[in-house]
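Q: I have 245 residues here and want to know how they pack in 3D. Can you give me a structure?
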Amino acid sequence: MATRTANVNGLNLVYEHEGSGPPIVFLHTFTGSASQFETLIPFLTDDYTCIAVELRGHGRSDRSPEGHYITKHMVAEATAFIEQVAGTPAVLLGQSWGANVAFGVAAQRPDLVRAIYSDEAVPANLVLDGSNERALGIMGLVGDAVSEKHREGLSFLQFANRLAAKLPRWAAMDPAGLVGFARLVAGSDPALYAAIRNPDNSWSPEEASPRRRPYTPPQATRPSTTCATGLHITSTHFPAPGTRA
């Protein structure tokens, strides 16, 4: 893949570009990077132009000087990137938080979106209601390791070992998975891990309500739907907690 850079609203965003045909824009997870799509993209390049961007503070892209990392900032940036780089309506393939960004782009600029493939979109306000404190605690440990990497100038191997020391159960059960995760988050801005607890970050296309709203478990949905705007949306199955997929 060809590595390129686009200046979007004053920040240099790194992206991978490969293939020919209608564009697919890949939107990574929170604290992720373009590398998470590297095994998928080769299967699509004969028919599509694949564009995997690293949004602000992620991977090799510039950090936000103001520490602006909540969802609405990413939606605005992704919208400008798609308009500038894809130049034509694109399929958006978003994973986890990247899927939320994709929905935000479609809500603001449906003319830029051909279709959405949503993989594990995060339910609105899941971060805010305290129902996943364990996950937030893990992300806090990851954030500490990322901060130490930048502050101490750790090599990747040192960083992976530091992360393993903070997450010993994961390291023992799935060492290869932990190394892959370390690679994914190694370049991320430590400020991202503070943004995850920002009360203004609803992780939804809309701005957060001033008051916390209770978390409502998502209902299992049909694999493929068409929304009111006419966009075709394909989503992975997301059953409610306590039920079987």
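Q: Anything worth noting?
A: The longest helix spans residues 133-152. The CA atoms of residues 217 and 240 lie 5 Å apart.
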